[in-house]
Amino acid sequence: MTGSDILLQALRSKVDVPDDEFKEYIALTELRNFKKGEIIIREGSVQKFNIFIVKGCIRTFSVGADDTETTIYFAEEGYWTGDLESLRNATPAKHNFQALEDTQALTLTSAQWEYTYKKFKWVVALHALGNQRWAAKLSEHIGRLLSDTPEVNYLRLLKERPTLIQRVPLYYIASYLGISPETLSRVRKKIAAP
Predict the structure, then answer these.
(1) In a 3-state reduction of DSSP, which class is residue 29?
(2) pLDDT at 101 over 90
(3) Domain membership flag for residue 150
(4) Structural domain includes residue 140
(5) Helical (H) or strand (E) element with 154
(6) pLDDT tops 70 at residue 132
(7) 3-class SS at 185?
(8) Closest listed residue to residue 56, CA positions, set 73, 39, 79
């Protein structure tokens, strides 16, 4: 499956996209490659392009005053990621975005993004829907971290996003779950025990 096929499938799973408009949209995109470990967007810089992942995985994280990294989100194939406010308003990005694997992404510059937003009604609908889902997911994730046990949160992650466990270092998983790597190790041993 090509990058444009993956993008079209992701779009059509959410909104109705006419063939002719998709052809114009895809012609504006650029395929970019990011190396494993590369910081794609650094907190405080202005995001210059949006990111749709064709292949790979990107981590969103913040760095605390004590230089501790907190993982906020993982985006895999078929996901968008980035700081939309930074892209649209040329303001500093609030988080860091790092390729956890060699990653291919379809991108639009901020000017192209604005053009498609103004030209295609489905782009507006897609972003309204995406923003609502993102806010709901983030709120739900934070609520579960505060109310559920580390074991329950890890089992939920295994069920909802099983491929993450195989492709993402466990210390990032622990950070995402708001626990130490040692606690995650204990949870994994408990689950594996007969």
Answers:
(1) coil
(2) yes
(3) no
(4) no
(5) helix 150-160
(6) no
(7) helix
(8) 79
